Amino acid sequence: QVQLVESGGGGGLVQAGGSLRLSCAASGSIFSINVMGWYRQAPGKQRELVAAITSGGSTNYTDSVKGRFTISRDNAKYTVYLQMNSLKPEDTAVYYCNADLATGPEVWGAYWGQGTQVTVSS
Fold it and tell me: Can you point out the beta strands (E) in 9-106?
């Protein structure tokens, strides 16, 4: 069994221009992790990719967060982070962690965290 547990958003409120750091730790029967990423879903909108990082450290970001958000990971701890700076009200959403993860040789699947609320006030 694999779990992805997020922390750092906590349903707290942050003012525009502020910062938050989200963490997501994978645990359980993990053989390997390829891409890890953060998605978000605002009310009434589809879930969108915010940022992703490969096991080798290559990253990509959605245009709206480039220059403000930084994704990183600790492969030894199966953990991915999202440092969010210069937050804007439009960043308000539930943020979900995602991992492309193997529980055995060639046994790959996509796993999701439970989501953590980020609310940015103007």
Answer: 13-15, 20-28, 32-41, 48-53, 59-61, 69-74, 79-84, 93-104
pLDDT tens figures, 12-39: 689 999 999 999 999 999 999 999 999 9
CA dist 24 and 103 (Å) reads 18
DSSP 8-state assignment for residue 52: E
CA distance 13 to 5: 20
105 to 33, 37, 51, 57, 70: CA distances (angstroms): 11, 22, 26, 22, 31
Cα–Cα distance between 92 and 94 in angstroms, integer?
A: 7
